[in-house]
Design a protein that fits this description.
heterodimer; A: 743 residues; alpha/beta; Beta-Lactamase; 4 domains; 8-stranded mixed beta barrel; 5-stranded antiparallel sheet; 27 helices; B: 276 residues; Rossmann fold; 8-stranded mixed sheet; 10 helices; 14% strand; Diguanylate cyclase/phosphodiesterase with PAS/PAC sensor(S) (chain A); Biofilm_reg_signaling (chain A); EAL_sf (chain A); PAS-assoc_C (chain A)
């Protein structure tokens, strides 16, 4: 607390209660009661004071607390006013106490001083010249007012200074703490930058490199100083995708905020590194591009691994040659880049007899042989635009990406066959190998990789069937025939179901009286694509594929159905039906049952059915077919030998066979047609005559095929031949033709 | 008073003396000198628009004192003062410890200067701590060492949000924030809340207060005035203590005359809710 203005310490005087008492303003009493004697004054003034200052300052007290507090201060003021000798110093303390209680509002002081001038002296009776001591009352009041104001001002000034000091100190501390936090934060970020395993570089938007972390320096092989002298654009790599630098330009111009690319960099030592690059744009507060931050991850190892995996994926591990996948890729590319005039050639080769080597000498030897063959092929063929690939097992393929002509691939094939002539030494074995090669060479226009591959495969098959160590060139006509055959055999089962087959009938005529006695059923195929097909186009094929069995079964049933119609219509004059039986059918275990069932189903008498077999089907076969023929014969079915005389029949054996009829091949009958000048018809006539005699000796009937003229018919009749068949009588035709002939 | 304690990028926010601080403006209105020219300039401009602002601040402090005493009378001895601002006369611990020296108070503010100052003021005060945090972040406030070390949340506590929620805009979901504190408060706890309002019988006053709110928009803190209904909604989930949500001076005045203050027009609401 500040001292009184005079600055001289004075003993605190007790209140001059006697004086007060003598003036009767307040109740008198002992020295201890001097203020107590003014209790009413104190209370009254405190209430007035509280009322006067209410709301002028914020104090943390309720109204009654304010009144109590001010009562205490009033007591001090009364003491000061009445002290003897007069000493206003306690009033200073009152001023200070008001500030301490936060009566800091300016209005509070104004009202307090005013109240002090008027209200309190009046309550104490200190008016006018009334003078408790040497001083006049007004002087005392003024002095007390002054002391209170002085104490108040002093305390408020001090409080203000203290608070300003405190808040400034608080700001200082808060700033210091914030700065510490910022420093710590910056240190953290700095550590992230410095220690990151990812390379980080900072540059301005002009591309000047400003900073780089250790990882980036290490990755690029430059010092920071060296890097700072370079521009981002100096790191352009010739293989960069065009998009990389377009994205970069957009970034530094503020059109994008970041981009991510794969990019190659040259290290300071010239080595290439592969990276994932992410570049971000940093803008200032107003959004203007300011810096760029590049984060660069070195993925060279990963890239090399991918390259190796890619190599492995595209190469044959045994021979190291390109594999099927790479070959197909290059083949497709040859088609894509071939343009309008480009030609492509393939040599598809396969080792002859490789399986034997593998099986007899073991897989190790086989593998080494393949390696050696691969090396020879590679040595004699590989050149730019030519690719040797191993595409499986012992199959290799040579791609000629820009073939000039077919001669190119033929030359290569010859070279390859020559290169494989010298034996190959594998361990202790000297192995002679050869290869078959299928060649395809053609313009890329109008064909596809798949077509070329398929044709090469087919051609290799042809070369194989032609014998060892040969090449074959793809032949589109041969291929077309084979394709047609294949198509026919593939569509035959469905064709039977769809009713694409039908039967024609050719009359068999008794030569003695010209009477129609039988009809041979001949199958036809009305093919939706190839048109009407004669049996020679598909019967052989059907025999190969086994389709002959169901087809033959259909023919038999259909022929018998027709025979039944004739049987019903013409009775005893009805012709027997003659149906051809293929070799394979004759050996079908179900044959007898099939025939029996068809006869039963159609109601045709067994004696009206004749089955025609070739010599080879009947002769020199095992017993089982004969058993079947015997069974059929026993049922009453007639058995005829077709085209008799063309095979090598064991004539002696004939007598043991269940045969009823011989059909003499048309080639013999042809000789009977004209009076040939060379006299060959005489020989033929004798042969036919001998055959007829032989047959009749064995109790067999004879039918001559291919009868085309009346002369032939007459001679055959003269010879004693029983029946004839041929265009002279009738061509094969629909059932109506038979009907007309009989009617 | 609240402000974000950290910047949007997680970096510490600088102490910016070029911008006024709500805490220091309040101090000025309360007759304190813990303020700078920039604070006083804003305070004076605001007073020119709404002359009763200093009175409203005094009324708020008086409500705080009465509410703390009410809580003490209800047996509560621990206080969590959210948005405590610059310590001034009649701080919560002074009011509380005058009744029971064992009373404990945790002050929370996000203004680094206010916190720094509070730390000095409280250095030698037992049972009182200051936490630098944003009241909108209960997940940080409630488990803090200051709170867990000084307060026992299994026992009733008075949570004070006095003149602080008008700095929490609706976009920060004050109802949810209060709800998080409510969940942490034991039954028998109280929420003490005061809030400036633009509600007024006099339309001009409402408009003027709104202008002050706009003034604040350029300062460190945004200002959201709420109606009586909105203030009442903030107390949802609490049982309102009589007389409910009232004008500041009308909440349990010391004397029927409310002679403490003489605001011509009262521009704040007060309310106390009890956690059942």
């Amino acid at each position: 607390m500040s001292r009184p203005a005079e600055g001289i310490p004075e003993p605190r005087h007790r209140l001059g209660l006697a004086a007060l008492a003598g003036r009767g303003a307040v109740g008198g009493g002992a020295a201890d009661d001097d203020v107590t004697g003014h209790a009413d004054v104190v209370l009254g003034f405190a209430l007035a004071w509280a009322e006067a200052v209410a709301g002028t300052s914020y104090v943390s007290m309720s109204r009654s607390e304010v009144e109590q507090h001010l009562a205490g201060l009033t007591r001090q003021l009364v003491t000061a006013l009445l002290a003897e000798p007069f000493d206003p110093a306690p009033a200073r303390e009152v001023g200070a106490a008001m500030v301490a209680a936060h009566f800091t509002g300016t209005e509070t002081l104004t009202r307090t001083v005013a109240l002090l001038a008027t209200d309190l002296p009046a309550r104490l009776g200190l008016t006018g010249d009334a003078c408790p001591g040497r001083e006049r009352a007004v002087e005392r009041v003024a002095a007390v007012q002054g002391a209170l104001a002085g104490g108040y001002a002093e305390a408020l000034r001090q409080r203000t200074l203290d608070e300003q000091e405190a808040i400034s100190q608080a700001v200082f501390v808060a700033r210091d703490q914030t700065e510490q936090a910022l420093r710590a934060s910056e240190a953290r970020f700095r550590a992230v930058f410095a220690e990151a395993a990812t390379g980080i570089g900072v540059g301005d938007v002009a591309g000047r490199i400003l900073d780089a972390n250790a990882s980036l320096l290490d990755m690029m092989g430059y010092s920071l100083e060296e890097l700072r002298q370079r521009n981002v654009r100096d790191f352009m790599h010739p293989e960069d995708a065009a998009s990389v630098w377009r994205l970069y330009d957009e970034l530094v111009q503020g059109q994008r905020d970041h981009f991510r690319v794969e990019k190659r960099f040259f290290r300071s030592d010239g080595e290439v590194i592969w990276t994932h690059l992410t570049t971000s744009l940093i803008r200032d507060d107003r959004g203007n591009p300011t810096y760029q931050v590049a984060m660069i991850e070195d993925v060279t190892d990963r890239h090399l691994l991918q390259e190796r995996l890619r190599y492995q994926a595209l190469h044959d591990p045994l021979t190291g040659l390109p594999n099927r996948a790479l070959f197909l890729d290059r083949l497709s590319r040859a088609f894509e880049t071939g343009g309008r005039d480009g030609r492509v050639g393939l040599c598809y080769l396969d080792l002859d007899g490789f399986k034997v080597i593998n099986d007899s000498l073991g897989h190790d030897v086989g593998d080494q042989l393949l390696v050696a063959v691969g090396q020879r092929l590679d040595a004699c063929v590989s050149a730019p635009g030519r690719l040797v690939a191993r595409i499986g097992g012992d199959e290799f393929i040579i791609l000629v990406e820009r073939s000039g002509s077919t001669q190119d691939v033929v030359t290569i094939a010859d070279h390859v066959l020559a290169a494989l002539e010298a034996p190959i030494r594998v361990g202790e074995h000297e192995l002679a190998v050869s290869a078959s090669i299928g060649l395809v060479e053609r313009p890329v226009q109008g064909t596809t990789p798949a077509d070329v591959m398929r044709d090469a495969d087919i051609t290799l098959y042809w070369a194989k069937s032609d014998g060892k160590a040969k090449w074959a060139l793809f032949d589109p006509e041969r291929n077309a025939r084979e394709v047609a055959r294949f198509t026919l055999s593939a569509t035959m089962p469905a064709a039977i179901e769809r009713g694409e087959f039908y039967l024609d009938y050719q009359p068999l005529v008794r030569l003695s009286d010209g009477q129609l006695v039988g009809a041979e059923a001949l199958v036809r195929w009305r093919h939706p694509e190839f048109g009407l097909l004669a049996p020679d186009r598909f019967i052989g094929l059907a025999e190969e594929t086994g389709q002959i069995v169901p087809l033959g079964r259909w023919v038999l049933r259909e022929a018998c159905r027709q025979a039944r119609l004739w049987q019903d219509r013409f009775g005893s004059r009805a012709p027997f039906i003659s149906v051809n039986l293929a070799v394979r059918q004759s050996r079908d275990p179900g044959l007898v049952a099939d025939v029996a069932k068809v006869l039963a189903d159609t109601g045709v008498e067994a004696t009206r059915l004749q089955l025609e077999l070739t010599e080879s089907a009947v002769m020199g076969t095992a017993d089982e077919p004969l058993d079947a023929l015997r069974a059929l014969s026993a049922m009453g079915v007639r058995i005829a030998i077709d085209d008799f005389g063309t095979g090598y029949s064991n004539l002696a054996y004939l007598r043991h066979l269940p045969v009823h009829e011989l059909k003499i091949a048309g080639s013999f009958v042809e000789g009977l047609r004209a009076s040939a000048a060379d006299g060959s018809h005489v020989v033929d006539a004798r042969i036919v005559g001998t055959l007829v005699s032989l047959a009749h000796a064995l109790g067999l009937g004879v039918t001559a095929e291919g009868v085309e003229t009346e002369a032939q018919a007459r001679r055959l009749d003269d010879i004693g031949c029983d029946s004839g068949q041929g265009w002279y009588f009738a061509r094969p035709g629909p059932p109506d033709q038979i009907n007309r002939l009989l009617s | 008073m609240t402000s974000v304690a950290t910047g949007s990028r997680g970096l510490p926010e600088d102490v910016d003396l070029d911008r006024p601080s709500a805490a220091r403006v309040h101090d000025y209105w309360l007759g304190g000198s813990h303020n700078f020219a920039v604070d006083r300039a804003l305070a004076e401009r605001a007073v020119r628009i709404v002359p009763e602002l200093p009175a409203a601040m005094r009324a708020t402090r008086a409500f705080l004192r009465r509410a703390v005493r009410y809580c003490l009378a209800s047996g509560i001895r621990q206080f969590l003062d959210l948005g405590s601002g610059i310590p001034t006369v009649g701080n919560v611990h002074e009011v509380a410890q005058a009744v029971d020296p064992a009373a404990r108070v945790v002050y929370v503010d996000s203004d680094p200067v206010a916190v720094s100052h509070s730390r000095v003021m409280l250095a030698d005060v037992p049972g009182a701590e200051i936490l630098h945090a944003d009241l909108r972040d209960p997940e940080r406030v409630l488990p803090s060492p200051e709170v867990t070390g000084l307060l026992d949340l299994d026992r009733p506590v008075a949570v004070l949000m006095v003149a602080s929620l008008h700095f929490v805009p609706d976009s920060d979901d004050p109802v949810h924030v209060i709800g998080r504190y409510r969940e942490a408060m034991a039954p028998g706890s109280h929420l003490v809340l005061s809030h400036l309002t633009g509600d007024s019988d006099n339309e001009a006053v409402g408009e003027q207060v709104s202008r002050v709110a706009a003034l604040y928009a350029s300062s460190a803190q945004r200002f959201t005035l709420r109606s009586r209904a909105e203030v009442t909604a903030l107390l949802a989930g609490f049982e309102l203590v009589d007389p409910g949500v009232t004008r500041l001076a009308e909440w349990r005045p010391d004397t029927p005359r409310t002679t403490d203050e003489h605001p011509r027009r009262d521009i704040g609401y007060a309310g106390v809710g009890r956690r059942v």
